[in-house]
Amino acid sequence: MTTIRDIARESGYSVSTVSRVLNNKHHVSAEARLAIQQVIEQLDYVPNNIARDLSKGRTESIGVVLPHTNHPYFTQILDGILAAAFVTDYRIVLLPSDYDILREQSYLEQLRCKVFDGLIFTSRRIELEIIKNYQKYGPIVCCEKLEDANVLSVYSVREPAYLEAFQWLKKRGKNQGAILLSRGEEISATAKATMKAYRAFYQSEPDEKLVITGVTTYQDGYEAGEKLVRDYESFDYIFANSDDDAAGIRQYYLDHDLSLPLIVGQENQLSGKLLKLPTIDHQLSKVGQHAFFLATKQSTTTHIAVMSHFIPR
Amino acid sequence: MTTIRDIARESGYSVSTVSRVLNNKHHVSAEARLAIQQVIEQLDYVPNNIARDLSKGRTESIGVVLPHTNHPYFTQILDGILAAAFVTDYRIVLLPSDYDILREQSYLEQLRCKVFDGLIFTSRRIELEIIKNYQKYGPIVCCEKLEDANVLSVYSVREPAYLEAFQWLKKRGKNQGAILLSRGEEISATAKATMKAYRAFYQSEPDEKLVITGVTTYQDGYEAGEKLVRDYESFDYIFANSDDDAAGIRQYYLDHDLSLPLIVGQENQLSGKLLKLPTIDHQLSKVGQHAFFLATKQSTTTHIAVMSHFIPR
DNA sequence: TTGAAAGCGCTACCAG
DNA sequence: CTGGTAGCGCTTTCAA
Predict the structure, then answer these.
(1) What GO molecular function terms would the record report (chains A, B) (predicted)?
(2) Range 131-170 of A in CB contact (< 8 A) with B
């Protein structure tokens, strides 16, 4: 492997001058620059990136923690991050967490070990207080609405769109709904937002038999349908967690010749379009882009809100 | 920042001994280990990963080149890669290419600069010969069937499933089809496989008006439907590029009250399930897993084939 | 404008 | 079992 020292020796200049040429710095004579560049070409030399990173103390890479890639919430945020990173020299490193707290913590440790310059949590299970302890090692962005002004946060503002959806349902005479959530209200920020909007609109608690958690895929939706029908309660609409799981629950009803309640999806996915389901677009790609800006300190604010849109169909 | 030298000084042992403790190596007395570990705790020390990488000359990360993430071909392969990497210490770095040859080459250069230990091309535009020039810098895996025994290759064996699909269509009296492809046959390995199977089955060239390229999404499918209907040719089935674009083309027919030809999708997506379209599952997650094994030299073979499955519906 | 040399923080070899 | 030390390849400061 040819090193900067080889170039220095062969060109007759010093390592420092070669370094200056490599980094396009000033204070190098035209002839020195030329001579050095020629040797670089000849020896087919390329600087070692790790050595550079070590010297500079940075890695030019951002870690993105995501539980899995089976939900549009994550893939859409990721798309936004990639789009924003595309025009920079930053690398995006995928960090699958499976919602395992130990894994999440190990990624924080890696931030500390300077594996990444910054970290984005598309979702998390680990406590915020622990995350705060790691902020001194680099910017950490959470894709959720946080009250704490000291933690970087990007999120979609869901309430208005949720209220609009409930209003729309009401106009159509639908007043009693089943709610599908990804995770429980106590650990999921999005679940919390959904329930908050529900309470604000109806001024009451939903029947607990009508709230089902752990629903993210078509299959989950199908099983949720089964459960809802079994534990039958009176309801006239279903507020799903995504268009895909909405499609699953719809299929359960169809397969069992049951009359379909009105179903509202989320995420504006292809399945919702195909089945003409009303849905809510949370603009997650934008969330991802902003998260990247914060993680790379291209943005100076700490909290960024993106508006969700209700799409009636 | 506390370094290994601080730990050495504070514990009264040498840098080497501390390093041994850090790396869980032998030849360290229990007391030394204990004393050193205590100091490590006290000073809240953590080894710098970049320095480690530099010393060892490796990065523990694999780059994954992908044109975009809007097609299940890529997301499914990526899922497989992540699943395989999950149980290792390797990091997965996403490298968006947008099919830009210059970008693809820059990633090869990064492999050369030791940014990655290995590279996976989920798809590529750059010439194979150029890739071969970079093999000396680390393992490079292409997710396509390559004749060249010297390039690592993982791919799904599509022909048998394609032939089965054509046979299935024939049994249902469908003999003249329109073909949707992602990219042209000359640059796309999957397009080539499709056309090869077509020719093998029908013993003839398809009508060129019935071959449409650049189709990967629902929207693309919709537009392809428009085009097919406009340049009307006699055909009784459509062989789509994915279930999603199959859904798009189907919708075009429905929107214009045209009688639907038989549509076969690919990739076994949710949309195909919802619309009950026959499809072909290319097992791309498995392809991704194997690609990772090759890129990390966990596998000694150079070519791995994964069988596609036709799913009649 | 140039060069010498001191790091960056760690690993690995060799000697004891 | 332990320590000294020479790297790993580059950047950066300081002096010339």
Answers:
(1) DNA-binding transcription factor activity; transcription cis-regulatory region binding
(2) none
